[in-house]
Design brief:
The protein is of the alpha+beta class. The chain has a single domain, classed as Cyclic phosphodiesterase (Cyclic Phosphodiesterase, Chain: A, Alpha-Beta Complex), CATH 3.90.1140.10. 22% of the residues lie in helices and 30% in strands. A hairpin with a 6-residue loop joins strand 7 and strand 8. Helix 2 packs antiparallel against helix 3. The longest helix has 15 residues.
Length: 194
């Protein structure tokens, strides 16, 4: 297990680490019908900045940063355990929000189960020494846009209706000049918790 100094998310792998490190995050996956709506909405409403592609859309549960590859099985177990204890999840769009570098659709957690899942997951990862929960509460959202200068958009919300995540997954994030590319390393069913 790596030292607590590597807990966080902004650290880079040290060149002398001697082991493979992966830039990881855990997220809820969106159903195809919701992705269809978000993709059409994005193309019609978000004209400025760098829009995220369909395969990049998700609801982040925890960003882990660069972690030793040997930690992946324990990370996936923590995700599976947290998901296995979850009740029914349901979201709907609640608002548009811009930070200094991203535009996002903030989601309303209709059952409160997504928040409970995220807190459970953060607790399990913390016990493993892999994650330090942020001071601010977890905010369910889908990042749609990245930018250097805040566009100050006020788009109408996409009409997804209520939707249920299609699964959860551990993702590998690879940095590229055109933006991060994501790859699912291991998926977890929301129905059976595994």
């Amino acid at each position: 297990m790596s030292s607590a100094a590597s807990v966080g998310g902004d650290e880079r792998p040290s060149p002398d680490a001697g082991e493979e490190r992966l830039r990881l995050f855990l997220a809820l996956q969106l159903p195809e019908t919701t992705l269809d709506v978000l993709e059409a909405w994005r193309d019609a409403k978000l004209a400025r900045g760098r829009v995220l592609e369909r395969e990049q859309l998700h609801v982040t549960l925890a960003f882990l940063g660069h972690r030793p590859a040997v930690e992946l099985p324990a990370i996936v177990r923590a995700l599976r355990d947290a998901v296995g204890a979850a009740g029914p999840l349901a979201f709907e769009p609640a608002g548009w929000r811009e930070t200094r570098s991203v535009g996002m659709i903030v989601l309303r957690d209709l059952t409160g189960e997504a928040d409970a899942l995220a807190r459970r997951l953060h607790g399990r990862l913390s016990e493993l020494g892999i994650y330090r929960p942020e001071a601010r509460p977890w905010l369910p959202h889908v990042t749609m846009l990245r930018f250097r200068t805040r566009p100050r958009l006020a788009p109408p919300l996409p009409e997804t209706g209520t939707f249920v995540p299609s699964g959860a997954a551990a993702y590998l994030s690879r940095l590229h000049p055109s933006g991060a590319r994501y790859e699912v390393l291991e998926g977890v069913s929301l129905n059976a918790g595994g």
